[in-house]
Each structure stands twice: as C-alpha cells, then as structure tokens.
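Bug #2210: token dump truncated for YcjX family protein?
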Amino acid sequence: MPIHTSLGDNARITLDTISDRASDLIQPTLRLGVTGLSRAGKTVFIASLVHNLLHRGRLPMFEAMRSGRLSNVSLDEQPDDQIPRFDYESHIDRLVDDRIWPESTRAISELRLTIEFESASRWNRMFSRGRIAIDIVDYPGEWLLDLPLLGQDFRTFSAETEARAQSGARAALARGWLETCNGLDYDAPADEKTVRALHETFTTYLTACRADEHSLSTLPPGRFLMPGDLEGSPALTFAPLAGLGEGTPKRGSLAALMERRYEAYKSVVVKPFFRNHFARLDRQIVLVDTLQALSRGPEAVADLERALCEVLACFRPGRNSWLSSLVRRRIDRVLIAATKADHLHHESHDRLEKLTRRLVDDAAKTIGASGAGIEVMALASVRATREATVESGESLLPVIVGTPMEGEKIGSETFDGKRKTAIFPGDLPANPDAFFRLLRRGGKAPDNLADINAVRFRPPEIDIEGQEGRLSIPHIRLDRALQFLLGDRLA
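Reproduced locally. Full output below:
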C-alpha cells in the first residue's frame, strides 16, 4: 500500500527535514505523533502524560525519572504558529475538577515540552546540553487511515469501498448509499443536488459504522466524519460510486465530477497532512480500543485488524542513519497501545496485550512487513477504577470498583453517574492462537467474543491530601510507554 507523492512533494519534504535537522543543532527536538482509532483516548493520553511529567508522577519504569536524572520539565511555546495548541490546561481541569472526560480529537494540535536532564553517560555529559524539546502532535486516527488513498485512483477507492459495504453488518448500514447509487446514470450530466444526496447518504453510512453498537474502524475518507473548516467545500462533497464501470468517465458526467473531487480531496486534504505533519514525525503511538472491538464481535475485530494493516503500511519503522535522517525522516519507533486496561482485573492485562499483539502481528504479515521497531502494550492513561474482591459462594471473585458513567447499563441496572459500583469485568481468552482460529472459522465464532462487561467509568476522584499535596493522575503502564518512546533520547 505505497503512498504516492510527487517529485515536488518529495523535494519539499527533504527541504523541511534538512531545515528541522539544522534547528536540532541548536535545540534537539523529537516530534511524537499521537493518534488513535475509534475513541481510544488520545486526548486523555496526552493530558495524563504531560501532567505526570510536569508533576513528577509515579513513573517507576521511566528510567530517567527513577534515577533522578530529570532536572526540569516545562511547557514551552510551540514552534508551529499555524497549528492550534493542545488545550492541556482545560483538559486537566475537566479530568481532575469536574471528573469529565475531555472531548475527542477533531483536528490537529500540538504541545511542546522541554525536558532538562543529566545524561547517564559521562561522555555524553561532556558534549550534550542535556536538554530536549518534545513536540507532541495530536491528530485524529481517521486522518492516518486516509494516507493509503494517495496510492489509489477513484475507481480503486470506489471498488474497495463497495466490497466492504456489501459484507456483514455494513450491508444493512450501507443500504441507503447503495440504493442511491443503483438508481443513477453515472454518464449523465452532473448536478449538485445529486452529488449532495450521494455524499449525505454515504456519510450517514460511515457515521453508523462508527457508532458504539458496531465500533468499526476502517472508514475513509476520514474528513467526512470531522470536516472542520472544510465542511461544504467541493473537496469534501463527493462519494464513491458503487458499480462504477471501466474506462475514462465521460466529460461533464457525474462520474467525472466525483473523480475530480476525489483527486481534489487528496490534493487539498491528504497530501498537506502527509507533507506538513506526518512526514516530520520521529516517533508514533497509536491507541486502539481492543476491548470495544472484542465486546462487539467478530466483524469489529476483523475491521480493527484491517485498520491496523493500513496503519502499519503508513509507517516505515526502522533505525535512522545520520545520512538518511538528513534527507528524509523515518519513524523509528511505533507503539501500539491497547487502552482502558483499567476496565479489566490485572490478571487479564497480559491477555489484552497478547490479543492486541496477535492482531498487530497478523496485520504486519498481511502487508509483508516485519515487527521491527513496533512495540505493543496494554495501558490506561488515567486509571478510573481500583481492584477488590467479593465473596461468591465459597470463593473470592476479583472485581473492579469505579463510578460508571450516567446511563451505562449492566443487565437491567442503569447507573446514575454518582454511585461507586463493584463490577466483575469478566475474562479475556487465555490462548490468542485458539481464539483467532475460532474467529476465522467462517463466521462460527460467537457474537460476543470476549466475556467482558464493557462499562464506561467516570474519571477517578483524586485525593490530593492522601498524596501529601502532590497531584498525581493514576495510570497503568504510562511509564513503560514513556520509556519506549523517549527513554533512549534521555540516556
């Protein structure tokens, strides 16, 4: 799934890289991309990461902090004036004071952290200032899944979209779009009313796929679900055409107009994101809600794997040589993080990690890639629950205790968003190989693949007095994620 760019694009990327490297001689910088699939918690991850660094949170696996080599961490003015600042302060207020989850990422944003440290190497201390800027670039996962479109023409895009729409639960959700397509003559003169009707029925289909009850992940074009300031523009007002025949579209026809607007979408939306942002990243974390997919059944899991195929195809993980890094950046470390580990008892954390790793490994094999430079882990950016045990007959049952969000249900019980509740979270399959063999047996896998209670919890109450006045947001394995993503640059 190659990403096609013009010679001009490549030249500009090379010049941008050389400019960035020249700036690094004055201020060493690492650009960390943060994205996620289907409400996996990008905003919460960034807010918790920054807060725990600024406030010296509990990060025992983050070696630079554990060893006492971090001398200062501060928020500084970001270098890119054209990119909105990540609203860290407001997100923290909502999490800590209001106990409300921040709103999902809908556009690109950026935040700069400056870390001052003492190198672990005496040699490095002689030649290094012990200071690095971490530019955190937050962008929607839907934008990442748009990058493969750069390698597809309109006919291929339409054919692949139609094939997906005719399978499983998508067939019912796509009925309106498919029926609209079937009633059209693609060679007829284009008119804006027909174009908008097609676009609206197709966007309705994508929105239904993303809803909680289906939780599907592969939904390009991504800007259809979050148009931003381009809403209503011709570049965002088109749709794929089901049953599109071979040959060049007739001039002035509906097919020709849709093809032209699709190419405009790539030029106006996708290429600038790739050239100005994605191609400048050094490290990347991709957050995935594996639990949500598992709770929704085989189709959601298969679609998550397909999305991971497209995600991994966008990256070229590998080590930068000093020469290659001067002319073209390469993302040398990618972390795939299964979020919401706090929704499970710790006995199931390794199972969540193994299931996600199996999805990643299978996706890598599908596209002919290796797992070099890719790490997988289960984490919770903000731990919203604690663990306990309750008596069940003559045995003790492991449970998690938290405050379910208002309107959440288990069986016939509906929660009010105020009362703490002990919930048996259920179990994940212990054997990923057996699990995926069952999943791929021609639809014979059970509808509910994982015996888990997928309940959303409110952010936790944070006892500042109990922490001796230090405000520290609880988490699970955020320190391991930091060590993988940043540890070598602070050595």
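Output looks complete on our side. Residues 320-327 have pLDDT under 50 and may be disordered. Marking as cannot-reproduce; reopen if the truncation happens again.
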